[in-house]
Amino acid sequence: MHCLALFLVSWSIATVAAAAPSDPCADRAVPPAARAMGFTRAVIDVCPKATDISPDGQGSFKLYNGAIWDTFRAPPDTYRTVPDGLAIKLTGGVTTLSPVGAQGTLPTLAGDRGFFVEFETYLSSNDRDHWPALWLMPREHNLSQGDVYPGDPKDFQRWMELDVDEGGFTTGWLGTVHSWTGIWPKHQTERSPHWELGPVLDRRQVHTFSASFEPRTLKVVWWLDGKKISEAGPPAVPKIARQQNFYLLMNSQSHGKNIPYEMIVRRFRAFVPPR
Q: What percent of the chain has pLDDT over 70?
């Protein structure tokens, strides 16, 4: 009887351990792709939760609700902590840069040095209407027009947008880099080709989406679950990116039907060259 009791206790503990989600932040190793490119210093490594988010843009936080180019702020209940990360409901969006100019705890990524970023995420359900977006923008692209440069016409803006992954456009992975130019509201873009690459993705499963920017060659490379999937260069990758500083964005959007879902962000990281 004593042996049976010990067996049942051991079995129960093992079952609970197996059911519990693995700690996404347990592995501190530099991703092989980042190491191969010389991006070996981790400057961002976050397994997020709802308390990491500033609801109004103020204060020193890891994440901020909303974006710097509009005043919309999702309600607080759009975000919740789950056992393995941060769940973001439809219409929610967080960034590592305060939309009102507060000093956050996470750095921007200098374009003149280059960087490697990765996001580990999954969705609560599969539907082509879901539009999860993992991307980067330069802090210079703001309402003060920090992306207007000497020698350019008045109000003429230039910036790079790097989309690490956007769901719903295809059944698989989709990443894009844009070279944006022009005077609002008539901005124009040179972008990398849109095509479906890789396998059909079950977005209910955890996937790792990664991308790098190499300023010397003006090259962007994407990886899906650790495997290289695409790359792009000029004209979609502009020289001006070398003068800009990038932050991370994570959004749960819709392609039009507004079918409810959540994107769960387990972890996001950024690596730069060693000092």
A: 92
Distance CA 83, CA 105 (A): 23
The verdict on pTM exceeding 0.70 is yes
Q: Which tokens is 81 given?
A: 């902590």
What gap in Å lies between CA 218 and CA 238, rounded to an integer? 7
Q: What pLDDT, on the 0 to 100 scale, is given for residue 8?
A: 38
Closest C-alpha among 161, 144, 184, 147 to residue 249: 161
State the DSSP H helix or E strand holding residue 4, giving kind and residue range, or none if neither.
helix 2-19
**Under 8 Å between Cβ of 252 and 263:** yes
Counting every residue written for the chain, the total comes to 275
Cα angle for residues 109, 255, 164 (degrees, 5° grid): 25
Round to whole Å and give the CA distance between 249 and 263: 13
Token pair 């080709």 is at which residue? 193
Q: Is pLDDT at 5 greater than 70 in this prediction?
A: no
β-partners of residue 134 are 165, 250
State the Cα–Cα distance between residues 82 and 89, nearest whole angstrom: 12
Task: Provide, for the chain, the percentages of residues in helix, strand and coil under a 3-state DSSP scheme, each rounded to the nearest 5.
Answer: 10, 40, 50
List the domains of the chain with CATH numbers: 42-272 (2.60.120.200)
| Residue in 59, 130, 149, 42 with CA at minimum distance from that of residue 101 | 59
